[in-house]
């Protein structure tokens, strides 16, 4: 695990957060793909780095990942609310496995 790989993941995470905040779906897709590619570079790391600077970078990267996850969960919740509201406007009611006409 090296500092440039961690820095790349952190940069891609920040790009994803910016895309999520902008609610730009094209940027979200591109940032997600870039983050996946950067993260794959870190896979296979055996241990936490001994260098305190690199360990701090990795810790910051993990915190940024949590920030992105919070935003994704929030957007998922908002979308679910919108879908439910649209179904209500169409006269459909939520049932266990989908919607049913009223």
In short:
The protein has 102 residues and is mainly alpha-helical.
Written account of the structure:
This protein is mostly helical. It has one domain. Helix content is 75%, strand content 8%. The protein contains three helices and two strands. The chain has helices at residues 3-22, 25-42, 52-89; strands spanning 92-95, 98-101. Strands 1-2 form a two-stranded antiparallel sheet. Helix 1 packs antiparallel against helix 2 and helix 1 packs parallel to helix 3.
Percent range for helical residues? over 70%
Class by alpha and beta content: mainly alpha
Amino- and carboxy-terminal Cα gap: 57 Å
Overall geometry comes to elongated
> Count of helices?
3
For the largest beta-sheet, the strand count, sense and barrel status come to:
2 strands, antiparallel
Tell me the count of domains: 1
- Secondary-structure element series: HHHEE
Overall pLDDT: 79
Uncertain spans: none
Number of strands: 2
* Order of strands, widest sheet: 1-2
**Percentage of β-strand residues:** 5-15%
Rg for CA atoms? 19 Å
Features:
two-stranded antiparallel sheet, 3 helices, mainly alpha, 102 residues
Topology record:
Elements: H1 3-22, H2 25-42, H3 52-89, E1 92-95, E2 98-101
Antiparallel strand pairs: 1-2
Helix pairs in contact: 1-2, 1-3
